[in-house]
Fold:
Amino acid sequence: MGNFKVGVIGCGSIAQKRHLPEYQANENVEIVAVCDVVESRAEEMAQKYGAKAYTDYKEVLKLEEVDAISVCLPNYLHASVTIDALNEGKHVLCEKPMAVSLEEAQAMNHAAEWNQKTLMIAHNQRFVSSHQKAKTIIENGNLGNIYSFRTTFGHGGPENWSIDGASSWFFDKEKAFVGAMGDLGVHKADLIRYLLGDVSEIGAFVQTSAKENTDVDDNAVCILKMDSGLIGTLTASWSYVSGNDNSTVIYGEKGMMELENDPDYSLKVTYKNGESVHYSLDKIQTNEAGGQTTTHVIDHFVESVLNERPPLITGEEGMKSLQVILSALEANETKQMIKVSSGNVSFST
Structure:
């Protein structure tokens, strides 16, 4: 067994489909503790992964042998549990969105810094083959100046995926704080920042149109202006009832690049002169049966801690991606364009 001992807090869908199997597949890791307020859920995972079951996460944090914690809880608990874990000297991999306010995100980052522990946010889009290849193509100047983009993430909603179905915390504003924008939009905010730099201004329409009995958003269309001046759109939706869309298209002076926009090619570049290059790369992870490839998030987290290197998505990066979403919500509420400056953490939502 591995010498890197981990505890997973929260045994819902994200833990069962991503964290636990991927930790188990990593030869350096031993899963020693699993925790869930639903005791039977914790027991079931404990049995499956040869770990010990807990219902109180603080007991897991007291275990000296535990090196790291995965926080797989509803959004509103991310900050408090992450900070407690860091203060107990554990490294933390926290699910996205990292928090429900910038103040919380900052407090998490301070705790990581203060305790000199790794805090990584589980944004898996940066590890997708087509996205990494796209970054290289952009940086190499193959597309020339970038003019515009569109990025979207939509599916039929968490009731099809979450362990609790339609009664899931995803629809509970108190627990989720934000809907499709926090579930899906934050992934694309992180991806676009990774590919094209920081966002400087945002405008948005955010609404609840497809789901009943919920106050969280399920459809959002945002206009982004990047620090470089280029503009584009970001959409997040739980209303795509007949399938997923996880695509990004980037328009440059020499051509356009399509990511995850074609069923056969995860990356397609079409040049102005009509030439096109298709790349068959590893497929993007989906929650569909048979589409479940590794997210690389767990392996990267373990590797970062063991090699004492900062992860690709630090708490600071997670905070900047969260800020895009918070600014979009503010833009929708105020019906104004909102400046997203990396230093602006004063407003409260």
Summary: Confidence is low (pLDDT under 50) at residues 344-349. The chain is about 35% helix and 25% strand. The first strand starts at residue 4 and ends at 9.
